[in-house]
Amino acid sequence: MKMKKKLTDQQEFEIMKLVLDKFLWLGFGIMAFGLYQIVIGAESIVKGFYFMVAGSIILVLFMLLVVKEYQVFK
């Protein structure tokens, strides 16, 4: 049986940055779409606000994941 290669903490962190960077773009994109909805005055301002809240929730979840996994604040 072949032994699996272990990643160093630095390598693991670099891979996490590549993957979770997509969540940052997703959160920012959703918030930008919500702002766009508010600016153009689509159906209601509340709909745009909901998009902005959803984007901010994604960004907060990303922040909590990074802090929990890597204990940024020691």
Please characterize this protein's 3D structure.
It is a single chain. By secondary structure, the protein is an all-alpha fold. It contains 2 helices and no strands. It has helices at 9-40, 45-70. The mean pLDDT is 82.
Give the SSE layout.
Layout: H1 9-40, H2 45-70
Query: In percent, how much strand structure appears in the residues?
Result: under 5%
Structural class: mainly alpha
Q: Write down the secondary-structure element order.
A: HH
Indicate the mean pLDDT: 82
Distance between the termini: 39 Å
The radius of gyration over CA amounts to: 18 Å
- Estimate the helix proportion, in percent: over 70%
Discrete helix count? 2
The low-pLDDT segments are none
Q: Strand tally, please?
A: 0
Q: What summary fits the major beta sheet?
A: none
Question: Can you describe this structure in just a few lines?
Answer:
This protein has 74 residues and is mainly α. The protein has helices at 9-40, 45-70.
Provide key terms for this protein.
74 residues; mainly alpha; elongated
